[in-house]
Amino acid sequence: MLKENQGEILEKTESRSITKIETIQELWSGYGSILRVHLSGGKYNSVIVKNIVQPTLSNHPRGWDTETSNVRKIKSYEVETNWYKRYNEKCDDTCRIPRSIHFWKNGGEQFILLEDLNDAGFPLRKSNLTLSEISGCLSWLANFHATFLNVQPIGLWEIGTYWHLSTRPDEYKKMKGNDVKKAAHKLSAELNNCKYQTLVHGDAKVANFCFGEASMKVAAVDFQYVGAGCGMKDVAYFLGSVLSEEELELLEEELLTKYFKFLRNAVHSRGGELEFFQLEQEWRRLYPIAWADFTRFLMGWMPTHQKLNRYSDKMVKMALELI
Predict the structure, then answer these.
(1) Kind of pairing, strands 46-52 and 100-106?
(2) Which of these, 67, 280, 295, 320, has the minimum number of CB atoms within 10 Å of its CB?
(3) Which CATH superfamily hosts domain 2-115?
(4) Are 58 and 205 in contact (CB under 8 A)?
(5) Hey, CA dihedral for 149, 150, 155, 156, is it positive or negative?
(6) pLDDT (tens digit, 9 = 90+) per residue, 56-98?
(7) pLDDT given at position 1
(8) Domains in the chain: boundaries
(9) Could you give the CA distance from residue 146 to residue 148 in angstroms, rounded to a whole number?
(10) For 261-306, what is each residue's pLDDT tens digit?
(11) Which phi-psi region, left, alpha or beta, contains residue 271 (left: φ > 0; alpha: ψ -120 to 50)?
(12) What's the predicted TM-score (pTM) here?
């Protein structure tokens, strides 16, 4: 239905005409698409349109087509809209995200109109990162977490991340009976009840980061699962998305130390009053617990997943000993 909404796009971008529309990607399970709209005669060369459509029949690639799944996805788009409406402007250049332009609904479809990060100096997408680029993403996460320390998730997920236990009953039910399943509620409670809470991105995989030419120039997209939580959930998930089990083993301490250095600087630069040593102590303890929590999800969702490996086994063992 984008054709019927071109007037809305032209008006809100103050453009004369649309010269080209290209599909960047289809949304997960057939819930719409993300489009790049090229413009002329206005202040934008191009913009991004997220077009959300609730499918008549969901088409989940792994067969998780349940009412729970549908409700979760529908809420995730409401959360993302609320994020761009209420929280967008709080992110500065140290945790850069696309600026929101407009939101509207038409005939049961929903539209989010955003700045195009390609045009804003972040044109690169990567799957394999150098250590410097990993540092850039950790810096982004640290500044994001520092920005939203102790912020209440109004209009967002009460518990951030797409895999948290209360929204994944189907996957939990599918899990084989093991120590992780028995400890699942304890693992979740440890993360949810930690003293130092922030907003987590909730899906901070490498595919959701955009890069500039400089290695530390990073922005992020996709805020469907942003909500309250411990920052280690984002850090563990990000590192698992970009490093092999051997690299994780080798680089874990170096990268965690970098993240906490970035976080300390980010908290202090924002005038934070908290006792940083206590935050770092709590979150370092929760790092293996965050890994075990995500591992619990994978064990139910896709027990053959490559991230279920020696490193995740090690993290699970540590987590079970801690709780």
Answers:
(1) unpaired
(2) 67
(3) Phosphorylase Kinase; domain 1 (3.30.200.20)
(4) no
(5) positive
(6) 655 544 544 678 888 898 999 999 999 999 999 999 999 999 9
(7) 59
(8) 2-115, 131-322
(9) 6
(10) 999 999 999 987 789 999 999 999 999 999 999 999 999 999 999 9
(11) left
(12) 0.94
Return all residues near 154 (Cβ < 8 A) that are at least 6 apart: 82, 86
| Helix, strand, or coil (residue 248) | helix
pLDDT at res. 185: 98
Question: Which distant-in-sequence residues (6+ apart) come within 8 Å of 255 by Cβ?
Answer: 134, 135, 138, 239
CA atoms within 13 A on the CB side of 197: 18
Is there a contact between 17 and 41 (Cβ–Cβ < 8 Å)? yes
Question: Residue type for 220, please?
Answer: A
Q: Strand, coil or helix: what is 228?
A: strand
SS3 245: helix
Range 131-322 has CATH code 3.90.1200.10: yes
Mean pLDDT of the 164-182 span: 95
pLDDT tens per residue across span 198-210: 999 999 999 999 9
Residues with Cβ < 8 Å from 126, sequence gap 6 or more?
133, 206, 209, 211
pLDDT value, residue 66: 76
DSSP secondary structure, 28-47, as one string: GGGSEEEEEEEEESSS-SEE
Residue 4 has pLDDT above 90, yes or no: no
